[in-house]
Design goal:
It is a single chain. With about 80 residues, this protein is mainly alpha-helical. It has one domain. The protein is about 40% helix and about 0% strand. About 0% of the residues are buried.
Length: about 80
C-alpha cells in the first residue's frame, strides 16, 4: 500500500487509515456473509512501514501540474470521479 500526503507524517497517516478502513470493510463483509472461520480472509502486515520519500517525476503529479484530470474515465483507478 502506498500513500501520499503533504508531508511524510501525513503520507504515513494515510496508509494507516486506509489499512484500518480496509480491515473494517473486510470484517463487515465476512460478517454479512456469515463466512466460516476457515474461509475468512485476514489482513496481515508483512513489512513494517518505510520512511516516506518525496514524489519526483510521478505521472500523477505531471498530470496535475498540467491541469489534466488524474483519471480520464479509467474505470479501474478506484476513484469515484
Amino acid at each position: 500500500m502506498t500513500g501520499t500526503g503533504a508531508s511524510a507524517a501525513a503520507a504515513q497517516q494515510v496508509v494507516r487509515q486506509v489499512s484500518t478502513m480496509a480491515a473494517d470493510v473486510l470484517a463487515e463483509r465476512r460478517d454479512e456473509l456469515a463466512a466460516p472461520d476457515a474461509t475468512r480472509i485476514r489482513l496481515q502486515v508483512v513489512t513494517p512501514p518505510t520512511a516516506a520519500l518525496p514524489l519526483l517525476g510521478s505521472p500523477l503529479r505531471a498530470a496535475a501540474a498540467a491541469g489534466a484530470p488524474a483519471c480520464p474515465g479509467e474505470p479501474r483507478c478506484g476513484l469515484r470521479c
